[in-house]
Specification:
Strands 5-4-6-7-9-8 form a 6-stranded parallel sheet, with helices on both faces. A 6-stranded parallel sheet has the order 14-13-12-15-16-17, with helices on both faces. It has 4 domains: 204 residues, Rossmann fold (3-Layer(aba) Sandwich), CATH 3.40.50.970; 158 residues, TPP-binding domain (Rossmann fold), CATH 3.40.50.1220; 191 residues, Rossmann fold, CATH 3.40.50.970; 31 residues, no CATH class. It is an alpha/beta fold. It is built from 24 helices and 23 strands. It is 37% helix and 17% strand.
């Protein structure tokens, strides 16, 4: 072993180390860090970009249009890779860094690995205050990069070149830990980036990282098996952790052999295909009548890889007060929630051990057929809402159905915020496993198009499914962040974008009015504008064309179907816009706890308050 040293700047050493880290996907050894999304400024252009330029053949750098969107692209990449490969996002100091905070929150809420690197002010403070520095009179050590502490799993400021020897492996360890997975952040002060240091040669030796699979405690498995054996109407809730563990087939086999129906969370949707023999639909507020009916009946719920967010549990109104929970989760924090019997461990390993502990036990013979009958009724309800009518403006449900039918088996559907999530969570019939990405852990407006870029990169690389990302979003979200349409045109990463124009923020207007408040500042016609009768609608097709995309504006479902066939044959990103109904939605039957004014002069609000109190009376509290 060479015990010599090599003299590098801190920035050069960071970059060199990144290029020597590897992972394995489907038996193929590949770089752990697939590339860098970067926007350069004075905080990272002179030192970090110098280092990145020298290794661009091994660690490609992609130019972003907005720091938030490029970091969101890294999040979409990580999700498509099921946390097995990582992208880096780098910005300058000040506003560039703060633009990435929202993306860090998205990665943190969704338990996804992204390495964020931002420039920072000078540790020596000689030129202070520098351009873009925010000063704190009582604490000069604080910079805007401290804002990342609330939304990262690992945070460090490198104030001496030697510190990366310990910090970089810890950052990767956090990002690849199934229990602690999330974004890691490094602040690189400008004067520290430039400093040279004699690094040990061993530090840059190639390393193959593997994602650990922690086994559960034997007694916890035994207790879980004993509890499950008491169940008359058991139910499995499969979350995103099932997908990240690669446990989809194991969970499906376990469910089929034990006769237990499987319902999916938003993050878990896509682990099973729509018509899989044990699949009983998505659960919760944007879930199916079948899954919610099963949840209400269930006496023992086996929750696998889910943090049981309020949209999954109907704000904890979806289950009987007498129902008991077993929670399999790699994270102790999630497994212990709501007094569940906690089985802390990897989903794949834990399901295998639970299966062995159950012996010959099976649920009653009629339980799974009952679930599938409910699911068949739900599927028919979807058909009713998705079938075209003579209405002049199509609904979201009808648009989703046309897009779904046109999608190739391995195309990935991507959505995040607004009215689309509820419609695709309910109505998108998954054709192949892991082809569905609905970011609803943070419900981040602006995720969609950026994630489409990251997904296109991921699916075309090692372990990718191929296919084309299909991004569905509303006009409000498009207006918030669309510049990565241009990024994909520049980089050659094709996606298909469907913009549903319903005249503003329609779904939040629906909630606003449902809780007794008149339409206000959500739909364009309810905003402070010059012409309420005829608000200006953006020509999204023309806008996308100006960024180099192929584009069409369509009016009917038939035209949409033709445009999608055309889009599939194009060689570049294609954007299709269609006017959609702002008031028609697939019905839901789960409750949601939101704040409603305790006192109001409006009768509509007072009635909504009474309904909210009734919802809260159904919540499981302390059980």
């Amino acid at each position: 072993m060479d015990h010599g040293t090599i003299r590098l700047t801190m920035a050069q050493a960071v970059v060199r180390w990144l290029t020597t880290q590897f992972t394995e996907i489907d038996g193929q050894r590949i770089p752990l860090f697939a590339g860098v999304f970067g926007i350069f400024g004075h905080g990272n252009v002179t030192c970090l970009s110098e280092a990145l330029e020298a290794v661009q053949d091994r660690l490609p750098t992609w130019r972003g249009q907005n720091e938030q969107s490029m970091a969101l692209a890294a999040v979409g990449f990580a999700k498509a890779k099921r946390r097995r490969q990582i992208m880096v996002a780098t910005s300058s100091i000040g506003p560039g860094a703060l633009n990435m905070v929202t993306a860090a929150g998205t990665a943190h809420a969704n338990r996804l690995p992204v390495l964020l690197i931002a420039g920072d002010t000078f540790t020596n403070r000689l030129p202070d205050p520098v351009l873009q520095q925010v000063e704190h009179y009582n604490n000069p050590s604080i910079t805007v990069n401290d804002a990342f502490k609330a939304v990262t799993r690992y945070w460090d400021r490198i104030t001496h070149p030697a510190q990366i020897l310990q910090s970089l492996p810890q950052a990767v360890g956090a990002m690849l830990d199934p229990a602690d997975c999330g974004p890691a952040f490094l602040a690189l002060p400008q004067d520290t980036q430039e400093l040279a240091f004699d690094y040990p040669v061993e530090f840059f030796e190639e390393r193959l990282w593997t994602i650990p699979r922690p086994r559960p405690d034997r007694k916890a498995v035994s207790d879980a098996a004993a509890l499950l054996k008491t169940a008359k109407k058991p139910l499995i809730i499969a979350g995103g952790g099932v997908r990240y563990s690669g446990a989809e087939e194991a969970v499906a086999k376990f469910a089929a052999e034990r006769g237990i129906p499987v319902v999916e969370t938003i993050a878990g949707k896509g682990g099973l295909t729509h018509y899989h023999p044990v699949h009983a639909g998505p659960i919760g507020i944007v879930g199916s009548t079948s899954a919610n009916a099963l949840a209400a009946e269930a006496d023992v719920i086996l929750a696998i890889g889910t943090r049981l967010q309020d949209f999954t549990t109907g704000s904890w109104t979806a289950f009987s007060r007498d129902a008991l929970f077993i929670s399999i989760n790699a994270a102790r924090f999630d497994a212990l929630k709501h007094r569940a019997l906690a089985v802390v461990g990897d989903a794949l390993e834990s399901v295998a051990e639970l299966d062995a502990a159950l012996g010959a036990w099976k649920a009653s013979a009629g339980h799974l057929p009952h679930a599938k009958a409910l699911f068949k009724e739900w599927d028919a309800l979807l058909d009713d809402h998705q079938t075209p009518t003579n209405a002049p403006i199509p609904t979201y449900a009808q648009v989703v159905n046309v897009v779904n039918k046109s999608a190739a088996e391995n195309d990935t559907l991507i959505s995040a915020a607004g009215g689309i999530p509820g419609e695709v969570a309910k109505g998108w019939r998954v054709k192949a496993p892991n082809t569905f990405d609905l970011e609803f852990g943070f419900s981040c407006m602006g995720y969609e198009i950026a994630a489409g870029w990251g997904c296109a990169m991921a699916q075309s690389g090692p372990g990718g499914l191929g296919g084309t990302p299909i991004v569905m979003l509303g006009d409000g979200t498009y207006m918030m962040m669309n510049s990565d349409i241009y990024s994909t045109v520049l980089s050659g990463h094709k996606m298909i974008v469907i913009v549903c124009d319903n005249g503003g923020y329609a779904v939040i207007s629906r909630l606003q009015q449902f809780k007794g408040v008149p339409g206000f500042n959500n739909l364009l016609k309810d905003c402070r504008i010059t012409d309420k009768a005829n608000p200006l609608h953006v020509d999204f097709a023309a806008h996308a064309a100006a960024m180099g995309a192929a584009s069409r504006k369509v009016e009917s479902l038939a035209d949409l179907e033709a445009a999608l066939k055309w889009a599939q044959g194009n060689d570049r990103t294609t954007v299709i816009s269609i006017t959609t109904d702002a008031y028609a939605w697939v019905p839901g039957d789960a409750d949601w706890d939101v704040g409603v004014p305790e006192v109001s002069d409006r009768d509509t609000v007072n009635k909504a308050r009474e309904s909210q109190i009734a919802i809260r009376a159904k919540q499981r509290v302390g059980v």
